[in-house]
Fold this protein.
Amino acid sequence: MSNTIDNTLVVEGLSGGYDRFDVIHDIAFRVGRGEAVALLGPNGAGKSTVLRAITGLLKHRRGTVTIDGTNVVGMGPHQISRGLAAMVPEGRRLFVGQSVEDNLRLGGMRLRKDRARTDQLLQSVYDLFPVVERYKAREATALSGGEQQMVAIGRMMMSDPSLMLLDEPSLGLAPLAIADLITALQQLRERKSSILLVEQRVDIALEVCDRIYVLSEGRIVDEGRASDIGTEGRALIDAYLG
Amino acid sequence: MLQVLLSGLTVGTIYGLVAMAFAVVFYVTKVVNFATGQLLMVSILLTAGLVRLGLPDWLGVGIALIASTVLGVIIYFVAVRPVLKFDRFSFAWLVSTLGIAIVIQATFAIIFGPASQPFPRGLHQIPVHLPGATLTVQEILTLVVGALAVLGWELVRRKTLVGKLGMAISTDPEIASTFGANVTAYAVGAFAIGGFLAGLAGILVGPITYGNPYLGDTYGISGFIALMIGGIQRPAAAMGGGLILGVLSIAANSYIGAQASDWFPFVLVLLVLLLAPNGVFASGDSLRKLFRRRSSLTVGGRA
């Protein structure tokens, strides 16, 4: 379980919450190198809290969270952002009043002294999302929901992290935009990125990820390979998640 | 008329610098530092005291500016950070910054006494005669410094990565921190800039007001009113509020009565709060919409 050499992320005995009340209890899971893993669960299961614990936004946490061999429990978010992990937050939360390109460049803050690498990453975002390049001078929050999601993913890519975290990226998107999102996530997979996807939509998780963990009331209650889950399994998980 | 306008702009620049000091701190931390006026008083009294001890004017001014900047940072660590650490969403800073303002004022009253302290007259002794108005070199310097403060702020904010990261922290500090922004360092920087701007306002207004420990209240309130008029969200808008307040206060003094500037700012801020609750220069407020509607009607009429 805790083989950190083959794993980008190893979480062991993670508990934490808000105002000294635990929301997640004794969580353990891993994300292998180049692997995409989904964390499924109903509203209030603690999925976003797990992501906040990994990124350092959750101050009250115990256990170990090892990213690329470094235990990040006790580190602040700005320290974890130095190449270890980057996140697409729920609701995208792009920087208001700033252009698409500025949002992307702010995502690449940690590499600001390496101009060549920043330009290379920016080009790779534009290659993946041509629409983002087309609208690079526009104010980011003026774009459609789907386009904003592309910018949010691009902003995450710009920090060139070992681990990419996505919190409910399909939330509030139109069906066409969701199809684009799935394509984008699959392209990220082809680039051998390590991904932890938090989702309520089982179909998206199964289409994109290698393995899934099911979270309920702050505990992991099930796990398995996405390919092993048949139509019946999907229906069961759907019913379970409500 | 020109004299009223230029004098108003000069006084308004002082109010504007204090309002900017409030706004820079608010921009990054969403905290209003109610000890801002006291930082202006500190720079005046320290300069006065150091020059009286025999230091050259320029050295006294330099040390006073450093002191108000450092005191701004100390206020952050003593009165703001501990209460935000306890509860990030509480308004306890309201009481703690007011408390530290009283402590600073009382300390300087004990050291310097309540009487007015002479401030180096410097450039205020040199008049510049213009057609229809007379200013001093100090007043012209005040206008230039005010313009440079706004230009410098906007240039850094819009054109540099540091400024853009500051904007990101202003709108979403949590997400900015996940992309490498050290939010605490920015907060310290904001309190330092706030302290410097308030100190600068003190140095510029010192030759006119001289120094006493209670000046902080007067200029703190005027700066806060300017902030409400211009808009708290943008430091450049706060300077705009200062200029409006300055010009209209001097105009009220000249055309209504000698004491009109005592009550006029309060009437003005009430009007602004009714018409444009977010400030005259804030985006989306009713005053701006009113102007836009009028201009579009005019364009429509011509067409």
